[in-house]
Amino acid sequence: MVERIGNCRVVGEIGSGGMAVVYKAVQEPLGRTVAIKALKPSIAMDSQFAKRFEREAHFMASLQHENILHVIDFVKDGRSMYIIMEYVQGIDLYDLLEHSEKLPPEVAAIIALQVCRALDYAHFRGIIHRDIKPANIMISRQGEVKLMDFGIARDESLSDLTETGTGLGTPSYMSPEQILGDKLDFRSDLFSVGIVLYQMCTGQKPFVEDESRTVMQKIRLDRYTPPRKLNPAVPRQLERILGRCMEKMPANRYPTTQALIDDLMEFLAPRVPMNYSARLVLFLRDVGVLTDREADELLAAGAPRNVRRGSKDRTLLRHVSAVGGLLFAGLVGGGFAIQSAAGRFDEDSVDFTSGSDALSPARAGYLRVVVDPWAEVSIDGQKVATTPIARAIALSPGVHYVKLSNPYHREHQQRVRIRTGETELVEVELQPLHVLDEGATP
Hints:
The chain is α+β, with helices and mostly antiparallel strands. The chain folds into three domains: 4-86, Phosphorylase Kinase, domain 1 (2-Layer Sandwich), CATH 3.30.200; 90-268, Orthogonal Bundle (Transferase(Phosphotransferase), domain 1); 290-429, Carboxypeptidase-like, regulatory domain (Immunoglobulin-like), CATH 2.60.40. It is built from eleven helices and 22 strands. The strands form six sheets. Strands 1-2-3-4-6-5 form a six-stranded antiparallel beta sheet, covered by helices on one side. α3 packs antiparallel against α5 (186-202). It is globular, with a radius of gyration of 25 Å. It starts with a strand and ends in a 13-residue tail after the last strand.
């Protein structure tokens, strides 16, 4: 292993592929951690691989966007080439799907939305990625989504390094026209986004090789199994979005990347009443990528605490506010709030007590609330929290009345009985206001 690359001291190897090795290093003048992608010595400097490697550096250096991995420098030293990039501490989508085979629909949509924002920025500049897949999508510990690896990207203003009639990419995520070796435009990337979104929602790829057909034949000729047949929790609106992405004919897909972004934002608006990065941090905690303490620290970094005192109670409002645009500067945007009617938020549960006395842990029972898409939770007439709630709500034993409210959906009310030391689950899928009751007349 090399010890120094330019002004960077190499700390260790992160990973290796067929063409390159990635190192973790410290850029000593600034003392910042970076990642260095090094072309393997076995690859000739005049080969197509080396040309693609250098072109990748130029592409990524020209794309300064919060959802694209930033290139800091490019070093050419004799028979070696290195791309010095920002170091992202987190997990790629490929590994995340190993932790959780199916992602909650709103989490999948948030990831797809951030990828599409990166693509829209690149597409406007005439660059097509051509290799959208889970391994090239990074989710940082701060809940930021980064698109990586522009190694086979194509700039419409430059000559292509791929011969006519051939296709580069990962077969399972290719568009039909990419498989055929046809001339591509931005809509090829949208097809790949649809495949990734399908996989996030169902835990399966839409096109899988079998004894009768290869995966590339299936992409060109076959229909996929509707997502809701594999996972009924997938909302029909999201099913329609990914279906339009995966139309066989490019003309039937979204006319612009922004049009896809608009549909994803419309889908998310009534379902995620918080900062999207904060929602991803909570999900990373739920699947064990982050510990409770790590997630709390990350959220608290962008969450000033404000205590409001009323005549009868205190409400602790934890609010994720807008801070910075840099990857490790904190969460971007605002809107996440956990409110506790008793004014106490500890590491194990949200404590709710309708009386004036604090609830004894020895007597407490617990309520876990799961709502699709989201709701404000009121217990015995007092607002307690806004879902998703990572922790159970501690309650006194006995009967309690739960109300779930969402301005875009029908209110749900439920009576629950809490027992000491036991956890009661309330799991509800709210009905949209525009859905008619069975038998009703429009």
